[in-house]
Write a structure and sequence with these properties.
- The structure is a single chain.
- This protein has helices at residues 9-17, 20-32, and strands spanning 4-7, 43-44, 50-55, 58-65, 70-78.
- It has 2 helices and 5 strands; from the N terminus they run E-H-H-E-E-E-E.
- A 5-stranded mixed beta sheet has the order 1-5-4-3-2.
- The protein starts with a strand and ends in a 9-residue tail after the last strand.
- The longest helix has 13 residues, at 20-32.
- By secondary structure, the protein is an alpha+beta fold.
Amino acid sequence: MGYEVKIRSAAQKYLDTLTGKDYQAVAEAISALEETPRPPKVKRLADSDLWRVRVKRHRVIYAINDTDREIIVVRVARRSEDTYKGL
């Protein structure tokens, strides 16, 4: 059995702004986390329990709760200086 993916409202707002291939790529990457929460090339963010996966020019920031088998998508953002601020 896989993990349950939950998306915070801020991340969902950003997802709602995406269109076409960008939306499809990010949505597929998030969906793939259900089966593989730590895919190849995933990075753990320094000094936190958050993980980051790259999807084209976007970043998906998420937390993994292995005990409850949950993935919480905290932020989806375009790569910029502000992507990691406030996490």
